[in-house]
Amino acid sequence: LATTPEALRERLPFTHVASGCVITADARLDNRDELLTALGLRERAGTIGDGEIILSAYLTWDTSCVARFLGDFAFAIWDPRRHCLFCARDQFGMRPFTYHHTPGRLFVFASEPRAVLMQPRTPYRINEGRIADFLVGELEGIDKTSTFFSDVYRLPPAHTLTVSSKGVRVQRYWSLEPGPELRLSSDEAYAEAFLEVFTEAVRCRLRSVGPVGSMLSGGMDSGSIVAVARTLLAEAGQGPLPTFSAVGSEPSTCIETRTIQAALTMDGLAPTSIGVDDLDQLMPELDDASWVLDEPFDNQMTLLQAVYLVASRKGIKVMLDGAGGDTVFAEGNQLARLLRSGRWLTAYREALGQERFWGDAFPAWQELYRSARSAIVPNWVRQMRRQLAGSRRLERATCDSIISQEFARRTSLAARLKTLDGHSSALPLPCYSAERAKCIDHPFLTVGRERYDRVAASVGIEPRDPFLDRRVVAFCLTLPGEQLLGGGWQKIILRRAMAHRMPDAVRWRRGKEHLGWSFTAALIERTRERIRSNIETNAQLLAPYVDIDALRDARDRSGHGCDGDDECMENEFEAAHLAVWLNRHKQRPQAICELQSINLTNQEQSRSGVEEQGGQTKALTNAERQLSVRTSKRHAYVSKEQ
Q1: Which backbone phi and psi does 246 adopt, to 5 degrees?
Q2: What is the pLDDT of residue 390?
């Protein structure tokens, strides 16, 4: 995953000789020129790597340096002068950072939990609460720190972590601060201002040693990225831009497919389409990949797995996507704000517009009623209603999942649902930008981006999202509500900015249609026997977590072994993947046990005064090297506390 010219030349860990400070990093800095000028390193612009720039910034500005970085990064700096390790993760969690800490003894960090667990001294205990989160589904976004292992944690985005003799300290270094609302003269002025910021974000993410690909769906987000990227490449005398689209089998009945076909009329593209029928050509690699997931949450990422696999086969190492677009452009309850400010007629028109956009599923009267209730009901009533709804929420969440009732009680499912709800305020926030900042800061965005990273990295691809450029997010946070929702059209500023840059059939498409489930259902159809075999073989392993009897009853009631019953198929699919994951982690993998045995042998030799030379030292080195290759796309490093 060395994807920039500088990364190919850079050798990490890198040591600054004068200070003795050492850095290892997984980073792409988008403001390299600005940093090089400020640090007096312009003459080395063509040779210095992003990791060395980060270390130079640390030596110049100390720990406050991290707030100056634009781009995607995770890094750690060992400072022998202070006997401390300083770590940080980018503002939106595009690069992963996981760690384990045994107070006073050990700190281990890596890009992935499994690399942390490769260290024999790291405890290997499954976090059952996270299994409950998977079974209930919506609880994936309960926090930004937990993993499926009790003693391994994620460093939250926009946070630093310092390890010293005093222990581990995690601090937030940046947050979305609600600022004054942007006021421009016209809708066109807003669109032009946004396009300037967005174009620079796309330009930064085109920096690569090889061709950059892009996802292209039938929506505004990826379509806008492609429209801007193809223009930038053409201006630089490069291109065409490889695009990758998941399409339905019958365009006449699939608006998503028809809109993708319209988007592909743009010049400067080298398109690849992946349909459900193409899954056979990706077997058995796709099937095998779907059963060795780092996290069970990834079991329904079949569409993305297929797209990334096809892109990887074509030599793509960097893929643009617009996964952050929906969150960055979320307008919140615009109707309630309009009603609260007395703009009743405007609210009515917006409700009608939303009904036209979404169809009969969102009738105008219903949206107006909900928004009016939100705008008028006193805060104390809203809080009381939310508290009273807790028990009904628990019952609904339990009934809608395959979780065992006893396991739900054991993991305090009600409390976990309450924690999730705590990320969404039931009360109006002081201003519109504060409401939207809270939405963007929700863990759902973090876990979503982490999913993309896991699936992409498994085939050697780095995902990049221009909508999660800090400058784009900060700009969108200043927009007034009417620039996000206008006439029922979501992301109205983006639609205006793309005028004459992408086909109107894409810009003014109504509603949304996702093909994700159709790809997963097709994979289920091709692997049905394997799914049921995994459930039955591992029934005892599943029993503490899953209501096996209910799962079997649902299959029997369907009459055809879940055929055509989406809910039944999905439940079996989830149970089978959990079974395989549990089977893989029910005990510390043998490879780790072997490495642990080697380490213990070496420790015994050291204690008995035997000089460590030759065979044992070589065996340890080879074992560690093999484990590193097998288990992690990036390296893991260990530091003893001083």
Answers
A1: -95, 125
A2: 65
Q: For 119-123, 450-454, 519-523, 627-631, which range has the lowest pLDDT when averaged over its residues?
A: 627-631
Mean pLDDT of 412-440: 83
Q: Are strands 22-29 and 71-79 parallel, antiparallel or unpaired?
A: antiparallel
* Tokens, residue 466: 């221009």
CA-CA-CA-CA dihedral for 357, 359, 360, 363, to nearest 10: 0
Tokens 């091709």: give the residue.
526
User: pLDDT of 265-305, one tens digit each?
Assistant: 999 999 999 999 999 999 988 988 888 889 999 999 999 99
Predicted pLDDT at 336: 83
Share in percent of the chain as helix, strand, coil (round to 5): 55, 15, 35
Extract the tokens encoding 613: 């030379």
Phi-psi region of 244 (alpha: psi -120 to 50; beta: other; left: phi over 0): beta
Both tokens assigned to 426 = 């039931």
CB atoms within 10 A of CB 503: 18
Q: Which residue has the higher pLDDT, 288 or 544?
A: 544
| Residues 137, 175, 22, 25, CA torsion sign | positive
- Please check whether residue 258 is in contact with residue 230, taking contact to mean a CB–CB distance below 8 angstroms: no
Q: What average pLDDT score do residues 21-48 get?
A: 95
Q: Which residue has the higher pLDDT, 391 or 507?
A: 507
In the DSSP assignment, the letter for residue 238 is -
Backbone angles phi, psi at 99, to 5 degrees: -155, 165
Measure the CA–CA gap between 446 and 423, rounded to whole angstroms.
13
Calpha distance 256→514 (Å, rounded): 7
β-pair partners for 405: none
C-alpha to C-alpha distance for 163 and 438, rounded to whole angstroms = 29
**Alpha carbon separation from 98 to 148, 158, 175, 368, 481 (Å, rounded):** 12, 14, 21, 44, 37
Residue 509 vs residues 62, 251, 334, 520: alpha-carbon distances, Å: 49, 15, 21, 25
H or E element: which one contains 109? strand 106-110
Q: What strand order describes the sheet that includes 318-320?
A: 269-275, 241-247, 212-215, 318-320, 462-464
8 A C-beta contact, residue 557 and residue 513: no
Confidence of residue 601 (pLDDT cuts 50, 70, 90): low
d(CA 627, CA 638): 15
Residue ranges of alpha helices (H) inside 276-378 are: 279-282, 285-290, 302-313, 325-328, 334-340, 344-358, 364-376
Query: Predicted confidence band at 73 (pLDDT cuts at 50, 70, 90)?
Result: very high
Q: What is the pLDDT of residue 617?
A: 32
Compute the mean pLDDT over every residue in the chain, rounded to the nearest whole number. 87
Q: Which amino acid is at 506?
A: V
Please indicate whether residue 232 or residue 391 has the higher confidence score (pLDDT): 232
Q: How far apart are CA 501 and CA 495, in angstroms?
A: 10
Q: Judge contact between 338 and 350, C-beta under 8 A.
A: yes
Give the single-character DSSP code of 206: T
DSSP state of 360: T
DSSP string, 367-408: HHHHHHHHHHS-HHHHHHHHHHHHHHHHHHHHHTS-B-HHHH
